Amino acid sequence: MKIAMIGTGYVGLVTGTCFADSGNDVVCVDIDEEKIAALKAGEIPIYEPGLSELVVRNSESGRLTFTTDLADGVSRSQIIYLAVGTPPAADGSADLTALRAVVDQMAPHLTDDAVVVTKSTVPVGTNQFIFERLQELLGREVDVASNPEFLKEGAAIDDFMKPDRVVVGVRRAEVAEILNELYRPFLRTDRPFLAMSPQSAELTKYVANALLSTKISFINEMANLCEQMGGDINDVRRGIGHDQRIGFAFLFPGVGYGGSCFPKDVRALASMARDLGLDPRIMDAVDSVNQHQKTVLVDKIKNYFEGDVTGKRIAVWGLAFKPRTDDIREAPALTLLDYLLENGAQPQVHDPEASENIRARYGNKLVYCESAMDALNGADALAINTEWKAYHNPDFDDMKNRMNGRVIFDGRNLYEPEQMLKKGFSYYSIGRPPAL
Ligand code: NAD
């Protein structure tokens, strides 16, 4: 099939590349000229495991091309995927400016049998809006489907190649059949292909992210209770997880969720509810618990240094909002870094992939370290934000030799409190008694 992918960001690039890898002709379109020039030169603008090899392989085979020419990309494709960003507006609603612009610009170039598919996460009713807008512009009906994306950054290729399910929202069964054909190579292991109305498909994406965010905020609130009541959230987690109605997935306490999806999608769903005169009580609570959770490491550090971190050298391990990505959008590390800088501390930071993105935001206000161990040199404390594998089994003796202080604030519960005590550290984690 001939596919145009409009918007070559995390989702567009991964989706376009995977479709090319299964034998389709894919042209990725973006307005960002630098990004397209880099991709044409074989440089991948984001860090995503396995992506680079796939892009290079499919570009070399000629099945994957890149352009800034929307008209050209659209006019030679049958399936037009929309994967532009839908960032949050000031009131929390999804900003559809880019998507609307693309719809208007591409309309005159659509072929007679074109199928337009939204991959971006868009508010319920957007599919209908596009359908009506194209009808208004072209004087005819164009097939518009919704195909929300559930991939996780850091495991995007695997998630796309072996999806738990594929959801499509369509008006006509024939359109579902075209998309089913496109996805068939990825659904060989009996993964379900679920066709439904566009509204249900659009909602499915928000409901999935809302529930996942709710689980995170729920376990974080329980972790905070554990700390106050003298319990250990790890034991409680085990105690509840074996109940098959509950399970273990997505119930890890931490310093809150971040990234480009959960925060914005929870707020967008709440905003949609409010527009309908409804009161999204759970979504508002999930968001507010998460905002609070991003400050728990700050509070622990503040308490430990009795409110004065001036001149303290604080090593910070992990800046990305989660491991295996360089994405720092709404990352909990930002809350910590802002606090440290505003209060005269000197952060010495390390992240295997996200340092450049952090540098673009903070410039030379931070000390950037090549290795996690280097970040500890002379540090009064270590704070951990992201559970990169490399941080799981460090050389604690080496750490002690390098550090000035002997205290670790662990926002991801990487170590066992008792062992940390034995190794000579004061250790504060999430939802567990401190080891002092
Ligand atoms: P992104 O910011 O990485 O990429 C968006 C791309 O669209 C950018 O490259 C931008 O230059 C391009 N763009 C903007 N306006 C354009 C225009 N007029 N014409 C062509 N290109 C244009 O965003 P993303 O993370 O890939 O997210 C895209 C959508 O997918 C969002 O709606 C997001 O909610 C959704 N989504 C993201 C993820 C994720 O993990 N990142 C997962 C599922 C769904």
From TrEMBL:
Transmembrane segments: none annotated. InterPro entries: 6-PGluconate_DH-like_C_sf, NAD(P)-bd_dom_sf, UDP-Glc/GDP-Man, UDP-Glc/GDP-Man_DH_C, UDP-Glc/GDP-Man_DH_C_sf, UDP-Glc/GDP-Man_DH_dimer, UDP-Glc/GDP-Man_DH_N, UDPglc_DH_bac. This is UDP-glucose 6-dehydrogenase. Pfam families: UDPG_MGDP_dh, UDPG_MGDP_dh_C, UDPG_MGDP_dh_N. Substrate binds at F150, L151, K152, E153, K205, F250, L251, F252, P253, G254, G258, K322. It comes from the Bacteria. Keywords: NAD, Oxidoreductase. GO terms for biological process: polysaccharide biosynthetic process; UDP-glucuronate biosynthetic process. The active site is at C261 (nucleophile). One of its GO terms (molecular function) is NAD binding. SMART domains: UDPG_MGDP_dh_C. Belongs to the UDP-glucose/GDP-mannose dehydrogenase family. PANTHER family: UDP-GLUCOSE 6-DEHYDROGENASE TUAD (PTHR43750:SF3). NAD(+) binds at D30, K35, T86, T121, E153, K264, R329. Its EC number is 1.1.1.22. It is an enzyme of class 1 (oxidoreductase). Pathway: Nucleotide-sugar biosynthesis; UDP-alpha-D-glucuronate biosynthesis; UDP-alpha-D-glucuronate from UDP-alpha-D-glucose: step 1/1. It catalyses: UDP-alpha-D-glucose + 2 NAD(+) + H2O = UDP-alpha-D-glucuronate + 2 NADH + 3 H(+). Residues 315-417 form the UDP-glucose/GDP-mannose dehydrogenase C-terminal domain.
